[in-house]
Predict the 3D structure of the following.
Amino acid sequence: MHDGIFFEKAGIPAAVFATTEFSNAARAQAKALGLPDFEVILVEHPIQPLTAEEVHGRADAVFAQLLTRLTGGPSLGLRAAG
């Protein structure tokens, strides 16, 4: 969170990921660090017991959000390469 907020405050687009279990903590950190509207990209919890294929699926599910977050524009329907 700290690095993402640091970059955003410096005008550099940043993406921070957290699992849904930590969404409240991420929002609290963003608020405490002075960017209460900073949007964290949330991935379904848990991650640890997943297979590599399942992790790739979770990554694919948020890839468009990542592109939008880093480019400031629409994702144009792009998806991660499988």
